[in-house]
Amino acid sequence: MSAAGGGSSPDIARAAAALRARIGGDPEVAIVLGSGLGQLATGVRDPVVVPFTDVPGFPPAGVVGHAGEYVFGTLGGRQVLLQSGRFHVYEGHPLDVVAAPVRVAAALGVRFLILTNAAGGVNPGLEPGDVVLVEDHLNLMFRSPLIGSVHGDEDRFPTMDEAYDAELRRIALAAAGTLDLPLHRGVYAALTGPSYETAAEVRMLGRLGADVVGMSTVPEVLTARAIGLRCLAFSMVTNKGTGLSDVPLTHVDVLEVGARAGRLVARLVEAVVAGLPDASQSTGAK
Questions:
Q1: What's the pLDDT score for residue 268?
Q2: pLDDT at 256
Q3: Is residue 216 annotated as part of the catalytic site, yes or no?
Q4: Closest among 101, 102, 98, 85 to 38, alpha carbons compared
Q5: Which CATH number covers residue 215?
């Protein structure tokens, strides 16, 4: 499989077997770290690090701010598999590659998927550094990793009425309250990128009901729900959308704000993991 564009789909069973052999454990929770959020990995106890390139069929991460590695260990008293970096459609990866880490996590026995991302603020009330609990999404990529042959026992027509698990969102809000961390709630709009949105597009997104906009997360959630994983997602606002600020946006700015606000997200995610229900009692079945 090539690192960008085209190529064959990863062999999920083979990739999962290779990763399991390296980590030597059974993760309960998978956590995907977006741009600038890699510092969460420093809180993992007894870490085992596996580069993406050591997993059969996985390309390296190709975006600055994404380490391109798995970190397995203990966080919040639970065994977790951190995915430091992700694959994006805008890199030219097929959707099977973008979704492969979710499918591999499920093959390892993961039942909870926590996703983080760097996002632009569409809601004028959001400021750089704010954290948003995603309650719903708009798939404006107009594509899905579920198109084509059904993978394993994935649901052909997964419901999206609770794409972002209500119980997990309540746990997140309670954790934020305990930590005295402001946590906004909103709708995430996913666009393909890699260009940032125009002012007209930001206005359109606001009228459609979006609060934040980014270039990831939704393909992973679609895949996770087809498998039956319970999902939770946080967007870290790294900038105001085009037209809402006089400051020109660069990816460097995104990473700098991410590094500052990432500490808050790390504390919040660890508290959420500690408060998750027992995986054997998961109610997120398809």
A1: 94
A2: 74
A3: yes
A4: 85
A5: 3.40.50.1580
| Active site (annotated) includes residue 279 | no
Q: Is residue 66 flagged as an active site residue? A: yes
Counting as low any pLDDT under 50, the low residues of the chain are: 1-7, 285-286
The pLDDT value recorded for residue 6 is 43
What is this structure's pTM? 0.91
Task: Kindly report, residue by residue over 93-125, the tens digit of the pLDDT.
Answer: 999 999 999 999 999 999 999 999 989 999 999
Our answer to whether residue 164 is catalytic in this structure is no
- 283 domain-assigned: no
Determine which one of 9, 245, 251, 279 is catalytic.
251
**Is 119 tagged catalytic?**
no
Catalytic residue of the set 28, 91, 197, 201: 91
pLDDT, tens digit (0-9, with 9 covering 90-100), for 249-261: 666 776 777 677 7
Contacts of 190 (CB under 8 A, 6+ apart): 137, 138, 139, 140, 141, 213, 214, 215, 216, 217, 218, 219
Provide the domain count of the chain. Answer: 1
β partners of residue 80:
29, 73
Domain, as residue range, for 27:
12-277
The answer to whether 93 is a known catalytic residue is no
- Which of 84, 117, 216, 235 is flagged as catalytic? 216
Q: Which residues pair with 213 in a beta bridge?
A: 120, 189
Instruction: Decide if 184 is catalytic.
Output: no
